[in-house]
Amino acid sequence: MKIPVLKINQFEETEPLKDFYINSFANHISLNKKLISKPHKHNFYLCVMFTKGTGIHEIDFNSYTIKPGSVFFLRPGQTHFWKFDSPPEGFIFFHSQEFYELKFLEHKLHEFPFYYSFQNPPLLELPDKKINGLYKKLEEVYTEYIKHKPFKELKIVSLINTIYIDFFRMYTNNISNEKSHSPNYLKILERLEILIDENFQTEKLPKFYAQHLNITTKHLNRVVKETINKTTSELIYERIILEAKRLIVQDDESLTTISHRLEFSDYSYFSKIFKLKTGFTPIDFRKKYRN
């Protein structure tokens, strides 16, 4: 069962706008049942706000409750799927990194906390009084999307940016570390996550990452401990185990082959580490998820 990676142009229902898509969630579900009925990944940034409906949204093997006011943020490469208990409504939009950043050259998507760190939750719960106002802003984006007027793309990016800023202000009110730690520590954490994402298969020791950040291993451990209350090794192995989970459920390769891809010396050691971190052996995890 190989998990598909979906692209923006697979969802377009109108004349394409390069690297951007928006739709009411109910309409999105109706039009794309075959694409999104099973676990899948995206090659773009995704945001969805629910105004009605209940259910579960699983993102990288963590489950989150869907309810009115739930806003979810997904980065490229994350595995997810929906399971609804009652009909959902709201808006969903997604876009490439270039679509946003080519218009805002001095501001990057990863500066928003819901996109810059996997340690930050991918969920924002809106206060009831904020839902209607943000829904109207998303309606304005959709109206612009389906029309053909001058500077259409520029206006959409500007509207999306104001929506992201609104989400950012409410999101940071709910994250204590945004208030209690220096920008320098958060910047180191961000750069560390990028380095881990690029090197985790071959580099599993904190020393490697400290050297590339031009700081001591001791200081790196201090930064990670004070910002997210973990060790650098824990952060590295969290990324390894996440990749292991993705490969176990999305590929039909043997578990031994997967352990070799992740640069473990042998399968028994990989299985031991995986069970220690998840409570399941790799084969039990594959059976559980696929069933």
From TrEMBL:
InterPro entries: AraC-bd, Homeodomain-like_sf, HTH-like, HTH_AraC, RmlC-like_jellyroll. Residues 190-288 form the HTH araC/xylS-type domain. It comes from the Bacteria. SUPFAM superfamilies: Homeodomain-like, Regulatory protein AraC. It holds the Pfam family AraC_binding. The keyword Hydrolase does not apply. Keywords: DNA-binding, Transcription, Transcription regulation. PANTHER family: ARAC-FAMILY TRANSCRIPTIONAL REGULATOR, TRANSCRIPTIONAL REGULATORY PROTEIN. This is AraC-like DNA-binding protein.
